[in-house]
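>> received
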Amino acid sequence: MVFAPSISVLTSVYRGEIFLPKFLENLRSQTVFPELELILILNEPTPLEKQISKDFQLKMPNQVEIQYANKRETLGSSWNKAWKVARAPYLTMWNVDDRRLIDSLQRQLTAMYVNPDWSLCYGDYMMVPEYGLEQGSIRNPPAYRAHHFRRSFAQGGAFWLFRKDIHERVGYFDEQFSVGPDMELSFRLATKGLEMGKCEGLLGYFTNAAQGLSTRDGSQVSKIERTVIQLRYGVFDKVDRDFLKQTKAYRLDAVKEADSWVLINTYVTNIESLIQWQKPLWMLGLFRRWFQILAKRFGLLGYIHDIQDRFLKREI
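>> returned
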């Protein structure tokens, strides 16, 4: 009988050999593991990464696909490669330095079955400073509201479960992005008007230690890519003008998919009118910047961010 997985796990690895054994152990502990397919994209793999991955594949050849990138590629590119060969109707990205509760995928899968209008399911998670810890900062994303999610990366991307076929409506990840392809796709989904939903309960632990493929380059690349996304979708009041020069290296009008460029208006047909309508937000952004400078000068900025984080669910 041909194996037909329910969920395909998309995992991009770069210098992750210290996490890989525990990641595979956590994967096998999932209550839905018999229904899982793992697609590993190994970026410039070390001999040990190759060996660990191959040994795991030999134990369950029907459930594991391994691909190699001899030159390190963007996170968007790795995820797209895995997305395109995935066999399951539902997909999740899973970084090797993050940990999931053993029933988290089962709960998300059930939520997607119960809510067939959802294109994507997300939920609460814990941000921890070191792999293996279970104490940290809880992230409680808000219930989905399109107008909010068009302006903020309100739910993170580490613990998504989404339908494979959404690419038919919004395309794939933008391969220009090394750190933020999930943020960009989230904005695209919300701007397109696709529904998302929140799963109840904690899903897992996100390791914020700047050691993974998505965090290793630090906050600088993240800030630049966030600025590109804000410019693309007209969130002009949040744009940090210090990064405008660096954004010129990106195409705002098109998504990079392998060797092709697909215009954003192919997926979001009203994007030009949306941008025009939101241009006055540039002035609001000036006031926002002045306020932040004053708040920082008087030592209030961190306190204000804490309030936003707790009550307004500012972007993460």
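>> The first helix runs from residue 20 to 28.
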